[in-house]
């Protein structure tokens, strides 16, 4: 099973690190044993995310943490202390969230380019959107081709409620989009070190200009001021699109003729075939596809007690409502309609589902398959691509378990 191998691979890497440390000093056998047992724990949370719940997260690195499969909770909205974090660059200083209302955002590529403070935005409009935030590479850890990058399983995703002002309102307030602009290009507020070409590192993403209709500039998440870890004081969110398109600590939203010249737009997040480098000739990673996964069982090789079992999970339509989800406990040979649980918060949120089933002792291969209002059904096979983006294969997300 790939996920198990993965975690073993990681544990061995960590143990290796600790052993080499131990071999430098003059450690007693007991402290050596301690160092080795500590090394089995995940690396600790970075300062900017120290308020997160480490038990709910797989901490891949200081800038990449994912929710454990069994830690999404059954309340639809992902609790903030369990929500994944992904930074391409180190985040800015915590100071930028101390006086959120003074943060400035520049609107360009409109008839009257203007700079607003967050304080001003709060007087101009208010909207809330329940939506899935999901990293483009969620599920990368299941690609047999072993693409480079964080080996995410299912947890680089969460369903949250963002509150802020619709970008549409700001377009109206600034006289409308300037003629000929085809993209909305948004820039992150990270400081770019001197002496390097900003295009090589800056987080700046373009999406089709008409998508601005559904975008929000958000200052709250799940009812609290947006923390730095999730892009406070102000973040662009693009419902239905993968995480990278939702720019944190956003300092500019520009309507542009062309896509950003940044490497993260031109060459990264492109659906390049296996063995090819990303480049503008390949599709940009934008919309999320229909997808689901089970959250109970929650681990490969888990053992469940026989009798009545509630197979649970999460299902999303991507860019339209999720209309149905089926569960298989025999590796995809037969499928059973699952029941949705809890509220329907619209096409950009996920829905919880449950399939109650009596299971006799034995081996089971458990997975789920969602369908959306556009008639798209989650495929058996992933769409192969060089960097392991957009994995929605039901087969890859399957868990082999034992019922005893
Ligand atoms: N400014 C900025 N915005 C960013 C990023 C970043 O590194 N810098 N990472 C992107 C990526 S790849 C993802 S998946 C999401 C992660 O959002 P989260 O950390 O709030 O979960 O933020 C996106 N927005
Ligand atoms: Mo991402």
Question: Any key phrases for this structure?
Answer:
alpha+beta; globular; binds molybdenum atom; binds ligand MTE; 404 residues; five-stranded antiparallel β-sheet; Immunoglobulin-like; five-stranded mixed β-sheet; Sulfite Oxidase, Chain A, domain 2; 2 domains; disordered N terminus
What does this structure look like?
- The protein has 404 residues and is α+β, with helices and mostly antiparallel strands.
- It folds into two domains: 259 residues, Sulfite Oxidase, Chain A, domain 2, CATH 3.90.420.10; 113 residues, Immunoglobulin-like.
- The protein is built from six helices and 22 strands.
- The strands form five sheets. A five-stranded mixed β-sheet has the order 5-4-13-8-9. Strands 6, 7, 10, 11 and 12 form a five-stranded antiparallel β-sheet that branches. It has a five-stranded mixed β-sheet with strand order 15-22-21-17-18, with no helix packed on it.
- Helix 1 runs antiparallel to helix 2.
- The radius of gyration is 22 Å and the shape is globular.
- It starts with a helix and ends with a strand.
- The N terminus is likely disordered.
């Amino acid at each position: 099973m790939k996920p198990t191998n993965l975690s073993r691979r990681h544990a061995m890497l960590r143990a290796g690190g600790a052993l080499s440390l131990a071999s430098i000093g003059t450690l007693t056998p007991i402290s050596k044993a301690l160092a080795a047992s500590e090394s089995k724990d995940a690396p600790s949370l970075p300062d900017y995310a120290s308020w997160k719940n480490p038990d709910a997260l797989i901490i891949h690195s200081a800038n990449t943490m994912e929710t454990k499969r069994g830690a999404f909770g059954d309340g639809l909205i992902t609790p903030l202390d369990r929500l994944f974090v992904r930074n391409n660059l180190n985040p800015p200083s915590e100071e930028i969230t101390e006086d959120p209302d003074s943060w400035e955002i520049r609107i360009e590529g409109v008839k009257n380019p203007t700079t607003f403070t967050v304080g001003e935005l709060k007087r101009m409009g208010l909207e809330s959107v329940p939506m899935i935030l999901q990293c483009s590479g969620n599920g990368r850890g299941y690609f047999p081709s072993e693409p480079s990058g964080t080996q995410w399983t299912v947890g680089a995703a969460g369903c949250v409620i963002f509150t802020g002002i619709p970008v549409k309102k700001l377009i109206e307030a600034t006289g409308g989009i300037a003629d000929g602009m085809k993209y909305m290009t948004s820039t992150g507020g990270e400081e770019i070190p001197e002496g390097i070409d900003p295009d090589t590192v800056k987080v700046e993403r373009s999406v089709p200009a008409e998508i601005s209709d559904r975008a929000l500039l958000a200052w709250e998440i799940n009812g609290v001021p947006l923390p730095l870890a999730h892009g406070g004081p102000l973040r662009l969110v693009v419902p239905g699109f993968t995480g990278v398109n939702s720019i944190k600590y956003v300092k500019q939203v520009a309507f542009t003729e062309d896509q950003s010249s940044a490497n993260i737009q031109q060459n990264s997040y492109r659906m390049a075939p296996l063995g090819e480098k990303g480049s503008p000739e390949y599709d940009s990673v934008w919309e999320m596809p229909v997808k689901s996964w089970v959250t109970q069982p929650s681990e490969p090789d888990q053992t469940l007690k026989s009798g009545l079992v509630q197979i649970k999970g999460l299902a999303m339509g991507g860019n339209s409502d999720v209309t149905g989800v089926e569960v298989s406990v025999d590796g995809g040979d037969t499928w059973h309609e699952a029941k949705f649980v809890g509220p329907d918060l619209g096409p950009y949120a996920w829905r919880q589902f449950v399939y109650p089933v009596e299971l006799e002792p034995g081996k089971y291969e458990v997975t789920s398959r969602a369908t959306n209002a556009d008639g798209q059904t989650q495929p058996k096979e992933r769409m192969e691509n060089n960097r392991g983006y957009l994995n929605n294969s039901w087969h890859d997300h399957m868990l082999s378990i034992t019922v005893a």
